[in-house]
User: What shape does this take?
Amino acid sequence: MPINAHPDYLNAEKKFHEAGTDEERILALEEMLKHMPKHKSAEALRKNLRTRYKKLKADFAKKSKSGKGKKGIKKADMQAVIVGLTNSGKSSILKALTNAQPKIASYGFTTAQPEIGTLNFQGCSIQIIDLPPIASENFDKGLVNSADTLLIVVEKIHEIKTVLDSVKTNIKAKRIIIFNKIDTHDKETSRKISETLKSKKYNFIITSVITDEGIGDLKEKILNSFNVIRIYTKHPGKRQKQEKENIPVILAPNSTVKNVAEKILHGYSKKVKYAKITGPSSKFKDQKVGLKHVVKDKDVVEFFTE
Assistant: This one.
């Protein structure tokens, strides 16, 4: 213990000795280094703590790399992939959007493997994948290249180009810039950040997982980034469920009633005699149509079989 140690240092030192995991020890050491005395007599201790800190981080990274390995990820109908630099708040964004519970820590490279969550929004289930930082050995370019939408998380404007350069191989994916941690800036700085992003014509959203600023709008922006239509179904003779309770069939634009039936069950269209449509593609409620009828977003389809 150094002479004249700050109370915060003493608390961090206590946490270090009580820690049960390497992650907790790393966090405690960071606090100890932050609050330890700056005088010359503490130089030896400072050097010792830094050496211990570097060794712990190296051991932690090695364990993460040699752990469970890469998970096989089956692509969903709608898939968005989160990319960014270390400590940009990617994991916090994943947690704010989905049911996932990723590790969140102040030290870098916390995300060692892709983390998966599901964003349930307006009846749709959207697969959200948080990748390790772009500088990580585990950064998966394959997932980047197959994504429908890329969520680029930054906390500084100059980071955008760095991240965009790392994902430029996927030219088809929609890109959403998420300027995170806006709660750390005052109103005037926030205004300037927004104006700069607008001037560069980015598709962006400004967020804070601390205050929830922009999270609702981000969900809307993610859903709208997919070039899909949502078709709801109902059973003959039964009332349609509320939209929030009814999971839609996700299809490409210009799909037909036959495509809806086949998405529900392969071969089902052969049993369909006709269907009734209510919604944007119908001329009136419960319009009787055939399998070739082209459906539109938010149509409600009722199938009748032989």
Observations:
- The longest helix spans residues 43-65.
- The two ends are 83 Å apart (CA to CA).
- The first strand starts at residue 79 and ends at 84.
